[in-house]
Amino acid sequence: MDQGSTKEDWPTCSRVVHIAGGILATNEIQTDIVRLWPLTTTGKVCQIKINTFGALYSSLDKLNLNTTGVEFITHQMELTGQAPTQFRGFIKQKSIWPNWDATVLWGGLTLSAFHHKDGLAYDLSNRIKFQLHTINDRIKNLSLAYHQQLNARNLGKNFKKDQRFQDGYTDLVYQEFHAFLFDAGIMRDYLCEYIFNFENDGDLKKVIKQSLNNLKLEVTTASGLLKGLKKVENLSNFACSLKDIMSKEGWLYELGQYRDLVMHSAPINLANSQLYAIQEIIELPEGQEIMSVRFPLPANPSELYSERSKRTSFDKYINQFKELSRLSLESRGKYDCLEYAHKIFGLISNLSLKVAKEAPYKPMEQTYTLTKAGTISSVSYIED
User: Fold this and answer.
1) Is 314 or 237 the better-scoring residue by pLDDT?
2) 348 close to 134: Cβ distance less than 8 angstroms
3) What are phi and psi of 97, to 5 degrees?
């Protein structure tokens, strides 16, 4: 087995890449070898060699492996567990770390609002920064739950393609998905509250209040903002695009429907009929194959929520048990849970970067300088 070569000019960190389906790829500190977990279906180690530090992600993409995030291990305390590893959600686009970029930016806006003594801007910016960090952790936790599930199936030594199953780890995955939905919903509402207060230098807030004939109106939810946007005739380009993604067929609308279904009606895997996890095989070059798992999501969450809210069709789960069981065993779902969560993670992180452009102040950064007299703290605007 090729042990690779040492790259002393590369950053001094190890990386663990989280891949859709519970797969992991490990790149040890300053080496050009990347090893996949689990072993292939024939029991072999699959590894690739990368030419540059940054080539890791494109190299995995060429193997038809979808990266969801990366753990960076840069300090001994992270190895021993005294500090958490540095996880960054990854998105396949020009700026591959939108959540990280957004978290830093909103931290700068929080600092700027504080120094401008604007309590509302400070509070909202701080909440958005926190929630960006939270959904990043939710993606990590969901991916780790997939990894635990795949590990359990791998240890079973009886992995069959398309096999449906449920074991002690299955519900844990759906629980982590629920947690992501809830926190993504909170993120959505925080951004909508910020937009209401600061979009177009605060003009949107004035126009919505006038249109709804309520000068004391405050908006803290997506539904509240959408109600106001529908009443305004001349919206900015940004507000128009926001209205589109919040309306039917928009991704924010769909997120809200999945979230409401789970929050107010039923666990996502029981909302229509019992959903089972699925064992899948991913084909690699040279005829190799690697195991993965899939957790289906039902289609049409709004229809399911509406039907369940009528509370007239619950008997079908008994009377049509055999037919529903057959459909469950055949279903792959509209999405995979991690696939959908990762998609929303990227979209809402990118949205937060756009919302930040509506901020009333430029972001600031705090610098600490060590002098003979002690540590001096200074604040300055971040250059574009």
Assistant:
1) 237
2) no
3) -120, 60
Report d(CA 141, CA 176) in Å as an integer: 7
Task: For residue 209, report the phi and psi dihedrals to the nearest 5 degrees.
Answer: -60, -40
The span from the first CA to the last CA of the chain, in angstroms, equals: 47
Amino acid at position 19, single letter: I
And the tokens for 14?
A: 């190890």
Buried-state track 96-135, b at ≥16 Cβ within 10 A, e below 16: bbbbbbbbebbbbbbbbbbeeebeebbebbbbbbbbbbbb
Q: Which of 131, 136, 249 is nearest to 189 (CA)?
A: 131
Residue 47: beta bridge partners? Answer: 35
Query: CA 221 to CA 191: how far, in whole Å?
Result: 9
Beta strand 374-381 with 364-371: parallel, antiparallel or unpaired? antiparallel
Measure the CA–CA gap between 53 and 8, rounded to whole angstroms: 11
Other beta carbons within 10 Å of 54: 11
> How far is 297 from 139, CA to CA, in rounded Å?
16
Q: What is the mean pLDDT of the chain?
A: 93
Average pLDDT over residues 174-192: 98
Q: 246 with 196: CB under 8 angstroms?
A: no
Tokens found for residue 306: 């509406």
Whether the per-residue pLDDT at 169 is higher than 70: the answer is: yes
Euclidean distance between CA atoms 60 and 375, whole angstroms: 44
139 in helix, strand or coil? helix
The pLDDT of residue 273 is 80
Residue 11 tokens read as 């950053």
Helix residue ranges per DSSP H, the chain: 56-62, 76-80, 98-115, 119-155, 170-198, 203-211, 222-229, 237-246, 251-264, 301-310, 316-319, 321-330, 337-356
Could you give the CA distance from residue 12 to residue 39 in angstroms, rounded to a whole number? Answer: 27
Q: Quick check: helix, strand or coil at residue 226?
A: helix
Cβ 161 vs Cβ 278: under 8 Å? no
Phi, psi (deg, nearest 5) at residue 366? -110, 130
Residue 1 has pLDDT above 90, yes or no: no
Q: Which tokens hold the place of 19? A: 């891949």
Residues whose CB is less than 8 angstroms from the CB of residue 310 and which lie 6 or more positions away in sequence, other chains included: none
